[in-house]
């Protein structure tokens, strides 16, 4: 898709992020490997969503830089960035009555000029995005009539219609049952495999993160505790340090990736 | 209205999506077309009816300068400016309402609720009663009042960006504040003064003069052009700030631009006709209902505002409901029940 595949690595370089003068992340470095799936996990309020928002330029940096290749993201025109980095934020609003196809077509915004109207190329891209997410039969349906799983697929279709090489997702599986969680992660894995899209997502579910990520980032109180291959990163020590939780790590019988089996107080090892 | 055409793989890619897009466009064209026909019919009626009723042919002829002196005077000096004013002012309110509601993502956001109309009233009434001004100075003062209130809301609502709900709540506060001042001014004025000042709290297109139409037209067209430029960003903006930013929209710039445009439209319209109740609140809701496609519906809302205002003015002027009343009263009488119905049935989503 892009002519120079070498320069589209998204990288945080000493970023400082916070709210109203309260610093959440103080000088964090992180690289999202190009063409891989990165999952960011960590306890509540560890700053993982804030970090993703900072990387996506949805939250202003108080310090440091976010780089796309060798370019400072904050100096890029927003529309240009939106043609490279697509984001599915945690909260999205669907206007009343909006149809699936119309919503997905809004993903074409960064590709259109001031007076730009939808062309047949846009129609083809929207159709492909609907097909990729299995929502083509819903094209004419109002979004509010759809189930949570369908809706999330439609929002992802909108991000796909943006045709970006990097896709960032903030807790995309929240509010979905376990089957729809797997469906969605499979969809992202296919996207990564077939198009080489760089995927980075904040996830809550450790075991799913371990299954689907090439690169697992474990965060705690605004810092990266460990990162790398899930098989090496997800140890009981790391889980204890990040989540303050005793857990056994066993191989996932299905995927062979680490499976975190938490103990909790009820099954605590007597000391 | 839903045409669920099965997607067959035999068609070239994008066909189904394109036909949906065309269907949406056809619906918009239909709505605007019907509004245009309604406007033409209402305008014809407005030119024909009065103390001396004219045939449609004579009325039209006179509007274009053909006919005897009496016809020309009645149509060109009295009736045409009123019809033109109703259309322009109505379109301005309708467009402003759509901009407010789309930008603030709140179906209750409108100059009536936000106190911007009240600000215009207060400006005009202050000029009339406190300073004894008249004519153009009163209109300018209404414009100033609306702008001042809008800026004040802005000042108090701005916290590292403009947040919708705070903007609306601060606006409601200012609405009451202006209302109180207004009542106080009217209460201490003598009867005759109060009666003429009262017109500025109701809204009427009866007194818009020939010479003001050109200014109104130029202003509304200019601001409508700005709105058209901003309208493309309204679609992404409706999905939430994060989504809009992720799609490449300069959220704060678009929001400030849209609100300034809307304030300009309201200030201009109220300086000519006073705060005509409910048009800005109801027109976008009507437009959204008619289109039912989740788009910002700016053009349709402007059209709905024009039709509504012209119809209300005709109804009030010709005592359709048994009494003669200025347009602002009629729109209030129609708008309030509509608002209640809107709140009762609500647009599926919560109003936050």
TrEMBL record, chain A:
It comes from the Bacteria. It is found in: Cell membrane. It is a peripheral membrane protein. Residues 10-246 form the ABC transporter domain. InterPro entries: AAA+_ATPase, ABC_transporter-like_ATP-bd, ABC_transporter-like_CS, P-loop_NTPase, Siderophore_ABC-ATPase. It holds the Pfam family ABC_tran. Keywords: ATP-binding, Cell membrane, Ion transport, Iron, Iron transport, Membrane, Nucleotide-binding, Transport. GO terms for molecular function: ATP binding. PANTHER family: IRON(3+)-HYDROXAMATE IMPORT ATP-BINDING PROTEIN FHUC. This is ABC transporter ATP-binding protein. It comes from Myceligenerans crystallogenes.
UniProtKB/TrEMBL annotation, chain B:
InterPro entries: ABC_BtuC-like, ABC_transptr_permease_BtuC. Gene3D superfamilies: ABC transporter involved in vitamin B12 uptake, BtuC. Its main location: membrane. Keywords: Cell membrane, Membrane, Transmembrane, Transmembrane helix, Transport. It is found in: Cell membrane. The chain crosses the membrane at residues 28-49, 83-101, 113-131, 137-158, 165-187, 259-286, 298-316, 323-344. It comes from the Bacteria. The keyword Cell cycle does not apply. Pfam families: FecCD (PF01032). It is a multi-pass membrane protein. Belongs to the binding-protein-dependent transport system permease family. FecCD subfamily. PANTHER family: FERRIC ENTEROBACTIN TRANSPORT SYSTEM PERMEASE PROTEIN (PTHR30472), FERRIC ENTEROBACTIN TRANSPORT SYSTEM PERMEASE PROTEIN FEPG (PTHR30472:SF24). This is Iron chelate uptake ABC transporter family permease subunit. It comes from Myceligenerans crystallogenes. The lineage of its organism: Bacteria, Bacillati, Actinomycetota, Actinomycetes, Micrococcales.
């Amino acid at each position: 898709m892009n002519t120079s595949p070498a320069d589209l690595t998204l990288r945080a370089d000493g970023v400082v992020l916070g709210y109203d003068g309260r610093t959440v992340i103080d000088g964090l470095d992180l690289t999202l490997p190009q063409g891989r799936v990165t999952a960011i996990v960590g306890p509540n309020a560890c700053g993982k969503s804030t970090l993703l928002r900072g990387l996506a330029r949805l939250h202003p940096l108080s310090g440091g830089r976010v780089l796309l290749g060798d370019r400072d993201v904050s100096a890029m025109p927003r529309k240009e960035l939106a043609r490279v980095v697509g984001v599915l934020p945690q909260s999205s609003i669907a206007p009343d009555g909006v149809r699936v196809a119309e919503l997905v077509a809004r993903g074409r915004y960064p590709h259109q000029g001031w007076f730009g109207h939808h062309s047949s190329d846009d129609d083809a891209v929207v159709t492909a995005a609907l097909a990729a997410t299995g929502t083509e039969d819903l094209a004419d349906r109002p979004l509010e009539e759809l189930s949570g799983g369908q809706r999330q697929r439609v929002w992802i279709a909108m991000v796909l219609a943006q045709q970006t090489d990097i896709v960032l997702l903030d807790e995309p599986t929240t509010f979905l049952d376990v089957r729809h969680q797997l469906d969605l992660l499979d969809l992202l894995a296919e996207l990564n495999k077939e198009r080489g899209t760089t995927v980075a997502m904040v996830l809550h579910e450790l075991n799913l993160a371990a299954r689907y990520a090439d690169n697992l980032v474990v965060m705690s109180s605004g810092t990266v505790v460990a990162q790398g291959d899930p098989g090496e990163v997800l140890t009981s020590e790391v889980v204890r340090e990040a989540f303050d939780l005793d857990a056994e790590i066993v191989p996932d019988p299905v995927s062979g990736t680490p499976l975190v089996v938490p103990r909790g107080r009820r099954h605590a090892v007597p000391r | 209205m839903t045409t669920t055409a099965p997607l067959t793989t035999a068609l070239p890619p994008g066909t189904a999506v394109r036909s949906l897009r065309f269907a949406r466009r056809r619906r918009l064209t239909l709505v605007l077309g019907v509004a245009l026909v309604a406007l033409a019919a209402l305008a014809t009626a407005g030119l024909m009816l009065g103390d001396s009723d004219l045939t449609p042919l004579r009325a039209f002829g006179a509007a274009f300068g053909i006919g005897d002196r009496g016809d020309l005077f009645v149509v060109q000096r009295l009736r045409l400016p009123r019809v033109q004013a109703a259309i322009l002012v109505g379109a301005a309110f309708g467009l402003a309402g759509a901009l407010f509601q789309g930008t603030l993502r709140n179906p209750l956001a409108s100059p009536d609720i936000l106190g911007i109309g009240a600000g215009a009233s207060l400006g005009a009434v202050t000029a009339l009663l406190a300073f004894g001004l008249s004519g153009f100075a009163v209109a300018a003062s209404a414009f100033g009042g609306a702008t001042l209130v809008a800026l004040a809301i802005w000042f108090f609502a701005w916290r590292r960006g403009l947040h919708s709900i705070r903007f609306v709540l601060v606006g409601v506060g200012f609405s009451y504040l202006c209302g109180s001042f207004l009542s106080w001014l009217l209460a201490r004025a003598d009867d005759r003064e109060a009666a003429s000042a009262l017109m500025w709290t109701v809204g009427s297109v009866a007194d818009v003069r020939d010479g003001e139409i050109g200014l109104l037209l130029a202003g509304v067209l200019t601001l409508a052009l700005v709105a058209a430029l901003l309208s493309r960003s309204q679609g992404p903006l409706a999905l939430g700030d994060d989504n809009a930013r992720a799609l490449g929209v300069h959220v704060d710039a678009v929001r400030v631009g849209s609100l300034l445009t809307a304030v300009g439209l309201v200030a201009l319209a109220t300086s000519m006709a006073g705060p005509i109740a409910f048009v800005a609140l109801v027109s976008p809701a009507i437009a959204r209902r008619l289109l039912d496609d989740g788009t910002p519906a700016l053009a349709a809302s402007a059209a709905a505002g024009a039709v509504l205002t012209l119809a209300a003015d005709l109804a009030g002027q010709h005592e359709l409901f048994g009494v003669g009343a200025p347009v602002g009263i009629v729109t209030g009488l129609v708008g309030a029940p509509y608002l209640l119905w809107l709140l009762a049935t609500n647009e599926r989503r919560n109003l936050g």
